[in-house]
């Protein structure tokens, strides 16, 4: 329900039309997944309504922001069976409008998703039999669209949003977008699932206002395999490529816990972001900063992407601009992952916190501006995706107002002290990338050699091996050393470079433990670092033991605290 202090003059009436799949989800939980030919006993079984179309329609309807006289409408097909009857009843009970008689396909079964979940690892296997979903034809969609957008059901609708996915026949999905576009509706395509080897063609691009892929779907649309997924700079470049191919307003890449990245044409209004010379703007978006559930644990991420898409369509139908709508939709998706299930986890109108209600957007009318928590992008100069993932973990925080991406850059080999090298590398990277960047350099420094090998440890190790590094100290009565990481950060080209250093004190010893991790076998942290107990080299430690005294972790802790302080001071 709308708050009483929101004038109807402020909120243009609008409707949401979802064209997509309707499935019955059959989920079995077991301690492991069966091997071929194996039968195992499960621990739990649930039957729920599903399908991306149904999920998105329920998400759009349940939050209660769509104009009640216009509503959320579902165009889809179920079989003429008991499962289909239950799915339609579930949609109607959630406030979704539909034509029951036109929603049944005779002679075929309702779409079914058989899901097996490993309760130990959380892994799952899914087999989908689309059934009636593939019997939703172009003619039925066009007739329904005409009735809803220009016929007797059209009403006084100032803004209609049509949301389509790819769990129906592709030719039907395309026709839905084309019909909606011709009738003046805002069109959204969620390209999920993106069929292997399938590409959007010009006729698709010319009918899409907003394209919403996740990271996997983005890579697939751009011709990459799942093992070639890229993040950061690569994600932005791919989203720009899709926009330049003809998407009319913007591409929104959903990024899970990282929020969403909006890549849009500059004429689409919104807050300032990273603007390029090609007339395209990139904005990193996350949920509202005052969302109450942010501190609660994540329980189940199933259906979160559908929650985002459905909520976005609902907010856009009320005339809210793209950036604000995306921010609020991140909030709805964030609320959904705190509960188990998909449709069952979507918040209802009476559960929405103030920051997700319509009246919070329009407080500008009363002197209070709605704040969008945009996230500044910082580029980690590395081509190693595993290092990027680890750094994103080290820097994560609920109040962290930055998005970390990566960019591979070949920098010149420099000479000097570790600090001088780190500072100069960061300065060069910032000038070349023309953005806020940080670099990471790790050294192993021998006190007996006045800090050498230091930043040249990789070259020394490759040339001498572990035994040779020990022999370097023969004749010196000092086996002490320290492991060092230096993070160098530049806010932008020409800006002063900040250094953040972490050290772990130790000894150089004959190699012990696995030799797969560089110089770890010859570095034994001091007793003060390790505490009581057996003395171990880095290579003999568990990950948790090493992390407890990690020079790298200490450097990133300092960097993280600096960024958080910078973020607070800029508010």
List keywords for this structure.
571 residues; alpha/beta; 17-stranded mixed sheet; 4-stranded mixed sheet; 16 helices; 23 strands; 30% helix; 22% strand; elongated; disordered N terminus; dITP diphosphatase activity; Ribokinase; ATP binding; magnesium; transferase
Overall strand count: 23
Average pLDDT reading: 85
Task: Categorize the overall geometry.
Answer: elongated
Percentage of β-strand residues = 15-25%
Number of helices: 16
What is the structural class?
alpha/beta
- First-residue to last-residue Cα separation: 32 Å
Unreliable runs:
1-9, 268-272, 364-368
Q: How much helicity do the residues have?
A: 25-40%
Radius of gyration: 27 Å
What characterizes the major β-sheet?
Answer: 17 strands, mixed
Pathway: Carbohydrate metabolism; D-ribose degradation; D-ribose 5-phosphate from beta-D-ribopyranose: step 2/2
Binding site for ITP: 382-387, 425, 441-442, 517-520, 546, 551-552
Binding site for Mg(2+): 413, 441
EC number: 3.6.1.66, 2.7.1.15
């Amino acid at each position: 329900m709308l708050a009483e202090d929101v004038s109807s003059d402020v909120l243009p009436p609008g409707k949401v039309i979802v064209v997509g799949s309707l499935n019955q989800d059959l989920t079995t939980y077991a301690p492991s997944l069966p091997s071929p030919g194996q039968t195992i006993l499960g621990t739990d079984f649930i039957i729920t309504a599903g399908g991306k179309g149904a999920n998105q329609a329920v998400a759009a309807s349940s939050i209660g922001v769509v104009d009640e006289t216009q509503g959320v409408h579902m165009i889809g097909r179920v079989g003429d069976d008991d499962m289909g009857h239950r799915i339609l009843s579930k949609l109607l009970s959630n406030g979704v409008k539909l034509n029951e008689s036109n929603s049944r396909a005779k002679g075929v079964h309702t779409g079914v998703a058989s899901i097996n979940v490993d309760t130990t690892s959380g892994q799952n296997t899914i087999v989908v039999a689309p059934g009636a979903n593939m019997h939703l034809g172009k003619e039925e969609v066009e007739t329904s669209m005409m009735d809803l957008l220009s016929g007797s059901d059209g009403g006084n609708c100032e803004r209609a949003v049509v949301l389509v996915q790819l769990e129906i026949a592709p030719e039907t999905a395309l026709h839905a977008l084309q019909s909606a576009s011709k009738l003046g509706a805002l069109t959204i395509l969620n390209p999920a699932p993106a069929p292997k080897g399938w590409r959007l063609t010009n006729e698709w691009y010319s009918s899409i206002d907003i394209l919403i892929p996740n990271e996997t779907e983005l890579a697939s649309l751009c011709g990459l395999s799942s093992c070639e997924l890229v993040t950061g700079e690569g994600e932005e470049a791919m989203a720009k490529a899709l926009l330049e191919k003809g998407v009319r307003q913007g591409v929104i890449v959903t990024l899970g816990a990282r929020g969403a990245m909006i890549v849009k044409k500059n004429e689409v209004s919104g807050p300032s972001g990273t603007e390029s010379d090609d007339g395209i703007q990139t904005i990193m978006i996350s949920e509202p900063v005052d969302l109450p559930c942010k501190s609660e644990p994540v329980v189940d991420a199933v259906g979160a992407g559908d929650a985002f898409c459905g909520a976005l369509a609902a907010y856009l139908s009320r005339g809210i601009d793209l950036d604000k709508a995306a921010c609020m939709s991140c909030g709805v998706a964030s609320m959904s992952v705190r509960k188990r299930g998909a449709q069952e986890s979507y918040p209802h109108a009476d559960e929405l916190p103030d920051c997700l209600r319509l009246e919070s957007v329009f407080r500008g009318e009363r002197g209070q501006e709605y704040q969008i928590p945009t996230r500044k992008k910082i580029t980690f100069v590395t081509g190693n995706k595993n290092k990027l993932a680890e750094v994103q973990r080290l820097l994560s925080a609920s109040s962290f107002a930055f998005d970390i991406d990566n960019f591979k850059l070949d920098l010149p080999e420099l000479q000097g002290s570790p600090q001088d090298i780190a500072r100069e590398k960061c300065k060069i990277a910032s000038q070349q990338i023309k953005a806020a960047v940080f670099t990471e350099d790790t050294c192993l420094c021998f006190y007996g050699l006045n800090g050498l090998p230091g930043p040249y440890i990789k070259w020394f190790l490759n040339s001498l091996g572990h035994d040779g590094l020990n022999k370097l100290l023969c004749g010196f009565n000092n086996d002490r050393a320290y492991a060092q990481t230096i993070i160098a950060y530049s806010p932008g080209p020409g800006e002063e470079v900040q250094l953040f250093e972490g050290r772990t004190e130790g000894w150089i010893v004959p190699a012990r433990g696995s030799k797969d991790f560089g110089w770890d076998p010859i570095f034994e942290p001091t007793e003060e670092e390790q505490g009581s107990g057996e003395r171990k080299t880095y290579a003999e430690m568990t990950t948790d033991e090493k992390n407890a005294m990690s020079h790298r972790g200490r450097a990133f802790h300092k960097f993280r605290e600096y960024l958080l302080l910078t973020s607070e001071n800029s508010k």
